[in-house]
Design brief:
With 201 residues, the protein is of the alpha/beta class. The chain is built from 6 helices and 8 strands. Strands 3-4-2-5-6-7 form a 6-stranded mixed β-sheet, with helices on both faces. Strands 1-8 form a two-stranded antiparallel ribbon.
């Protein structure tokens, strides 16, 4: 991937086991590895996809960052220069929603121009059994209003709202006049894509 141009850099942030890698796998490859044993993302993994928005072709680069707290300082390397950040919260784990505020504060401190999106993951688990839901829908929408973010509940297992989430991110990027002319193309380097893993939750 070295030297490839990325127009729109998107970073995924959130607590460990929150579903970041599964979301990327579903969007980029339309697959779900729910039966595979969990493996931690170390540092970050990278994927890219070309998207056509209103006749304009852009390349979206997606960084799947580690959710473990011991890698949080390293995550700053990967969201530097990001145009969009998707912060994930597992709908069956309230503590993952609590952790979203930390990431919002991180972005506002270090990347204030990065547009924020909230994703409530594992929607299939709460759809099938309401007792599994630990994060109320209005809780996420109220928080999204507070921080001026978009919010969408998703399921990597079924594909629910996955394409719509990234489509919205791409549309907002193209619609922003400040992004019409990209003076210096972002290029991937071996350092940014050095940390690889196949999949986690």
């Amino acid at each position: 991937m070295a030297g490839s141009r990325v127009d729109l850099k998107v970073v995924l942030l959130g607590k460990e086991y929150g579903g970041k890698t599964s979301l990327v796998e579903r969007y980029l490859h339309d697959r779900f590895h729910g039966d595979v044993p969990y493996q931690n993302t170390i540092g970050a993994a990278f994927g890219a996809k070309k998207v056509e928005i209103g006749g304009k072709m852009i390349t979206m680069g997606i960084w799947d960052t580690a959710g473990s707290e011991r890698y949080e300082a390293m995550s700053r390397i990967y969201y530097r220069g990001a145009k969009a950040a998707c912060i994930l919260a597992d709908l069956t784990d309230y503590t993952s929603f609590e952790r979203t505020r930390f990431w919002v504060n991180e972005l506002k401190t270090n990347e204030e121009h990065c547009k924020i999106y909230l994703s409530g993951t594992k929607y299939d688990l709460v759809e099938n059994d309401k007792k599994n839901r630990k994060v109320d829908y209005h809780m996420t929408t109220d928080f999204a209003d507070e921080i001026h973010a978009q919010v969408m509940e998703t399921s990597s297992k079924t594909g629910y709202h996955i394409k719509e989430l990234f489509q919205k991110i791409a549309e907002d990027f193209v619609d922003d006049p400040s992004n019409l002319e990209i003076k210096e193309p972002n290029t991937l380097n071996m350092y940014e894509s050095a940390y690889k893993k196949k999949f986690c939750c």
